[in-house]
């Protein structure tokens, strides 16, 4: 019998007990052992839970119990999760987490501490929910040079965008639904403003570079400005709008372009068809040349399942050693300035004179593709690729008129 502790008994923490119960036989088969949840640390009591008698409020109870071999950290946030995780690792306990904020900010220190103490720090559940993309990037792409990652990395916003597209649903109503379903963060601004996806693309980039970029170097744009008119335009263009976390990695020069923003994705790309709470991660390398991972990116059971998969790896020895990583904090210039990155843009401008506006747009952007079927009083076009800073300069001062929308193309 292996004893574990869960710290943070919310949506994911609660799911862990359920996964262990449901998969008891499979876990026994994989590890030759049974898992017992000996303690649950939370500020609250859970008198109606079958695990009510395991609840403790003092972390030292877990820390000082030599029987506890693995701590599942599902608290969220950097502190006190960081302190508890460090203490557990120093006490010779492995730590498994779903906490992307913590991994994206302090993963370097936690991994180093795990190594020092001969234990594991694992985080499959921190990105992509139930998708085993951390294993996949680390092991299946181990000898490959991943140069591009594009991912729908946030289930909540994908759920919202899908409902807006298919049902013309209201943003606020769908967000409430996503919260009820246990997809959204405690503060859903982290979802809709792209912060959650930012942490995840930072983690995925670190897996293939060993460089943990500072989250604040990653250009991150909210999806709250996306309107039904944008959805309609994307459909007429031949695609859809998705919130993507992207990374373009220049291994030769040790640099990466990393950004999160609403993006027009063409229907020809499988990412365009990843709907609802699902996440999709497209990976490109000169060798593998287009690969995609797909699955439930949020929710109690898929995320808890990913946590338990790490626990099983540690107990069975299958994969735990391979998933140990040596990250370092990236230098400030690892992330390329966003202004230097080139994109093609979808643009919608209010105008009384379509011809005049198009003429001005051609002067600024050169060749443009005019989109047919625009709403009355508007003109819409797609630009050729242009550096972000040059596009910003072109729109500054309102020379082109009132820009209703500007969205980058994948
Ligand atoms: N709020 C996150 C999401 C949870 O919606 O994707 C999973 O990390």
Can you describe what's shown?
With 410 residues, the chain is α/β, with parallel strands linked by helices. It has 3 domains: 2-129 and 301-328, NAD(P)-binding Rossmann-like Domain (Rossmann fold, 3-Layer(aba) Sandwich); 144-296, Dihydrodipicolinate Reductase, domain 2 (2-Layer Sandwich); 339-409, Alpha-Beta Plaits, CATH 3.30.70. The chain is built from 14 helices and 20 strands. Strands 7, 9, 10, 11, 12, 13, 16, 17, 18 and 20 form a 10-stranded mixed sheet that branches. The chain has a 6-stranded parallel sheet with strand order 3-2-1-4-5-6, with helices on both faces. Strands 8-14 form a two-stranded parallel ribbon. Helix 1 (11-22) packs across helix 12 (300-316), helix 5 runs parallel beside helix 10 (195-209) and helix 7 crosses helix 8 (171-180). The longest helix has 17 residues, at 100-116. The chain is elongated, with a radius of gyration of 23 Å. Bound molecules: L-homoserine. L-homoserine is lined by residues 129, 154-156, 183-185, 191, 196, 297-298, 303. Residues 129, 154-156, 183-185, 191, 196, 297-298, 303 line the site of L-homoserine.
